[in-house]
Amino acid sequence: MVKFLMLLGNYEETALRSVSEYHCDPGYLLYGNYCYHLESEDVKSWQDAEDHCSRQQGHLASIHSQEELSFLTGEKRSRPTSGRAWVGLNDIKSENQFVYTDGTPADFLPWALGQPDNWQDNEDCVHLRGHNHAQPGLFNDDFCTSTREFICKKGGIFSQSCAPRWIQ
User: Known Gene3D superfamilies for this protein (predicted)?
Assistant: First the structure.
């Protein structure tokens, strides 16, 4: 936020800028204005993972750019287990009409080769392939009842400093 003040008799403009930043709860990583929790110790079905994220005031992750995907795959690579992880993308309500649980558009869909395939006519939930797979970091549709690692995403916590900085 920038405010301009006019000093009387001097006609000099000075900007007062408030310092702002985002931060995350413990156990979450900040990227942009969002916080991510990559759960690798406790595996859950897709719905149980979404319920867990909701209890944390978030959702299973929505991914909207190659940069966001690279951040998440890089973080997953640095962990001892780097298996498949649930994201919020699904076509539970309507086959091949993929939506995110957080309501954001499905505007970036990095599917692995041959995916989505709806194998056995029953794959409605999406995971991010881990680094132990031939096509890591890409989406794959899967049985929602499979247990996987998962990624939660929620908005970052905005905090505003009370100490202004004067800019000439």
Answer: Mannose-Binding Protein A, subunit A (3.10.100.10)
